[in-house]
Design goal:
This protein has 496 residues and is mainly beta. The chain contains five helices and 35 strands. Helix content is 5%, strand content 40%. β15 and β16 form a beta hairpin. The structure holds fe (ii) ion. The site of fe (ii) ion (FE2) has 7 residues, from β35.
């Protein structure tokens, strides 16, 4: 292995930092590396060809007020695989906010757990306003370009998916009518090359939906009128429809009048789904109602005769109560603990003829961050690959392959003190229409606080419980984070 530190960012975080989401598995990275021909335990399959990308949150400066783990600056970690070898790079996303705070030598904006009024600058990003667009939430590769986005809406930053060179902002965001830009998550349909997008804001109509074509042109955008400001985080699609949502978890309207953005769950209100043909107009939107919940992520959607089927993670307790005796810091972050939220795979069925909604839980297992084989996104499918959470924390302690047709589950636990990342499916090189849906691999990066290191693990997707078939050593322990993606080499249009 050859590894080089190519940049070091000057951090102003306190040396004795004790914040639970800036230490341990969440200790931020401030160095940027290039590392080639990484050391491997086991064997990297010769037919694993592509790029794994992971976005993470890495605060550089002490926060103004309370720090939330989603406030940190976006950093991509890249592991590329070809010919049985692996390379690694990591780079901060060069956002405007990162640059401006770097020049100031301090944080300029408050995060999700403070109020906009305490930001040092009047301007900023996000549906809340006066936030930093950290571009730290999602990563996806579209039209050969890695795109990062932020959960509170903002710009979409472009990077080369293998060199991680900055490529500026996606130009189509400026044409999208949402005043706050684009939200994580954008959704890629490999079948058409289209990217489906949405944005939300506190201004009427409160949500917009759009389509970016395979060449990176915004070709469709419509209003999705809502009854008021909402907090959607994800959308879904089938072959013919886009599905957006109006969930009964949103900023308390009474508090909003005083400039305070306090999410409040309304268990007396239904969950509402907007079903619209992918190139449909506002007038074509059909609304379906279901039991109240909050859903962070959808798994997949597909059409089945008159029915539109949607799978996602139903939170059985979207607003967990404080628990007696729980440490204050742990109590504060209970709303990002999958186990407190009781997030479980769930299926909604919308009848496009009668307007009927049916719904059912798919398993009792608490898990989230589901990935599928992207080649069948929007179509009937069998397998999802999901993360389980360490109780009390936003940390992934295990991986579950869920057969949504038979209901069986196969599990791998990373071990005490070892945490994985979102784990996408990597189809075997040459994967085609005749291949089995799970003919490929699963790739994840671990943060091992016991051994103070990180590995990129490769699993055979047909034998998850057997554990990784290859462990690739990274040059430095990487912080935990949020979303990841896999892009086959064939989609990059270049050799690795
Ligand atoms: Fe997300």
């Amino acid at each position: 292995m050859t590894s080089t530190v190519v940049n070091t960012f000057a951090s102003t975080l306190p040396a004795d930092d004790a914040h639970p989401y800036r230490t341990g598995a969440w200790q931020p990275n401030h160095r940027e590396w290039d590392a080639f021909d990484l050391e491997v335990e086991g064997e990297i399959p010769a037919d694993l060809e592509g790029v794994y990308l992971r976005n993470t949150e890495n605060p550089v400066h002490e926060s103004i007020g309370m720090y939330h783990p989603f406030d940190g600056d976006g950093m991509l970690h890249m592991v590329s695989f070809a010919g049985g070898k692996a390379n690694y790079r990591n780079r901060f996303v060069r956002t405007d906010g990162l640059r401006m705070e770097g020049e100031a030598g301090e944080a300029l904006w408050t995060g999700a757990y403070d109020v906009a009024a305490n930001s040092k600058r009047e301007d900023g990003w996000g549906a809340r306003g006066r936030m930093k667009d950290a571009s730290s939430t999602d990563v996806i590769v579209h039209n050969g370009i890695a795109l990062t986005s932020f959960w509170q809406c903002g710009d979409v930053y472009q990077m080369d998916p293998t060199t991680l060179a900055e490529m500026g902002k996606a130009p189509w965001v400026g044409q999208f009518p949402s005043p706050t830009g684009v939200s994580a998550h954008t959704k890629l349909d490999e079948a058409t090359g289209e990217l489906l997008i949405f944005g939300y804001s506190t201004e009427q109509p409160f949500m917009h939906y759009g389509v970016v074509d395979a060449q990176g042109n915004l070709v469709h955008a419509i209003d999705v009128p809502l009854p008021g400001p909402r907090l959607p985080h994800d959308m879904a699609f089938s072959t013919n429809y886009a599905i957006l949502n109006d969930l009964p978890m949103f900023w308390d309207p009474a508090m909003l009048e005083f400039g305070a953005h306090v999410p409040k769950y309304h268990p007396d209100m239904p969950t509402r789904f907007a079903v619209v043909p992918r190139r449909g107009r506002t007038e074509d939107i059909r609304w379906f109602e279901a039991d109240p919940t909050y859903v962070l992520h959808w798994i997949n959607a597909y059409e089945d005769g008159d029915w539109l089927v949607l799978d996602g993670f139903f939170q059985h307790d979207p607003s967990p109560a404080k628990q007696e005796g729980m440490p204050k810091m742990m109590s504060l972050y209970r709303s990002i603990d999958l186990n407190r939220l009781q997030a479980r795979p769930h299926r909604w069925r919308f009848n496009l003829v009668t307007g009927e909604t049916r719904e059912e839980s798919l398993t009792d297992t608490i898990m989230e961050f589901g990935m599928i084989n992207p080649a069948i996104a929007g179509k009937d499918y069998r397998y999802s690959y999901n993360m389980t959470g360490k109780p009390g924390w936003f940390l992934f302690d295990g991986l579950v392959k869920h057969d949504v047709q038979s209901g069986t589950e196969e599990r791998y636990m990373f071990g005490d003190g070892v945490f994985g990342s979102e784990t996408p499916f990597a189809p075997r090189a040459g994967f085609g229409p005749e291949s089995a849906e799970d003919d490929g691999y699963l790739v994840t990066i671990t943060t091992d606080v016991n051994r103070n290191l990180s590995e990129c693990l490769v699993f055979d997707a047909t034998r998850v419980a057997d554990g990784p078939i290859a462990r690739v050593r990274l040059p430095e322990r990487v912080s935990s984070g949020t979303h990841s993606c896999w892009t086959p080499a064939a989609h990059l249009g270049r050799s690795l």
